[in-house]
Amino acid sequence: MRMSKTVRKYRYAFAGITAAIVLLMVIIGIFSIDNGTNQMIVEYIEGLGWEIEPTPKEISYLTIPEEFDAVYETYNAVQKHSGFPFEDFRGEKVARYIYRVLNHKESENAQVYAGVFVFENTIIGGEISSAENNGFMHALTETSNIAPQ
């Protein structure tokens, strides 16, 4: 009788440890960075001449609306100008990576970020922006705002 209580106690302990390990793996999976995608984005942005912190400040997931409001229409116009097919991804769930930009003309005075939309390991849009009082947004490809070195 004593042995079965001991076995039961170990089973519960084993089940608890297993559940904790599974939970930890799920949490790590949710909050981890896809290094391949991150490297692709960093190489693209830096290839344009922007200097960024290579670790994203934020990664979020959203669905691009089927119907664009005025804000999305304006954003889409910027993307078209840059050659991105942003509007082709209406209704799709995408990832948005945000990086701190270090060499924008306004980087000394404001927090400047590069935002990049990714769908299935393909960059489908992006911008350089600041949400400061006199904020701005322009295309990733608009490199005239890179600070001279």
Structure description:
With 149 residues, this protein is an alpha+beta fold. The longest helix is centred in the first third of the chain and has 30 residues, at 2-31. It has three helices and five strands. The protein folds into two domains: 1-32; 34-145, no CATH class. The mean pLDDT is 87. It starts with a helix and ends in a 10-residue tail after the last strand. It is elongated. It has a five-stranded antiparallel sheet with strand order 1-2-3-4-5, with helices on both faces.
Characterize this entry briefly:
It is built from 3 helices and 5 strands, in the order ααβαββββ. It is an alpha+beta fold.
Query: How large is the radius of gyration?
Result: 22 Å
Give the strand content: 15-25%
C-alpha end-to-end distance: 79 Å
Q: Which geometry do the CA atoms define?
A: elongated
